[in-house]
Amino acid sequence: RPAPSRAPASRNPVAAAGRPRRFPVPAADLQSLALTGAVDDYMLAEDELVPAEVESFESLGHPGHYRMHFAKGFGAGYAEFCGLADGFFVHIGEVTFAEPYALSVSAPGMLRVRVASAGDGEYVASRGDTLDIKGPGAATILEPPGLPPAEAVFAGHNHMVQIYLHHDALKLLYAGNEQDLPAVVRAFLAGSLQRTVARRLPLDAALLRSLERLHACPLKGHGRRLFIQSRAIEILCHMFDALGQEEGSVFVEASALTTRGVLRAQQLLMENFVDPPSLEE
Fold it and tell me: Please, which residues bridge with residue 87 across strands?
């Protein structure tokens, strides 16, 4: 739920890395969003007011679990929010934005993960890395407390899942096993990270499977929440493994062409699972 935060007075059309911004946005056009760790802050009921960009609201059996369908002026598609516990949220969505959607985002003490088979936009930290999220890909963002808001812009067709994990929830999840985490995540937990770290990571077959299974899940009620939780943890484990490999510089990211080919092959197999084509075909 958006909370008041102060947007910077002016926006720099050049990102921190020195390259031109693909989506420079005037400060007046930025929507403010402040993410907190309390699941109660995100609970909604069907009779409660929802943002203007939402056309319809659907409860999924829990005040912290619902689906919103967007109004035509904003875009076409939906977003499902699942608050699993304090500091552990999952956002599953497919939306085609009518125009670029720009946010001033503050997420102190949050680790965020994005896995997408389609999407466009960019993330510019106030102090730290700039992240280009064009096309299929995976990414993680670690934001320590005390930093000014970052800027995020989303555009075009997005098919994705995003996971939000607060510092305290991550510490609880890995209690006594922090040594298994990549160095940058250990620094985040130890409070020694001084800048936002944003990394684009390989979109491998395991992440693609988790993404599609979350979107295709037919379960309802508590069973759906448990399914989302299990897939979210699976995605986190794969992302931590990829971050660890990045620190050792042992992987090469698949090209966009290869990724599109994998997605197309997956779609063909799903459409023809009774009589699938041969490997050669």
Answer: none
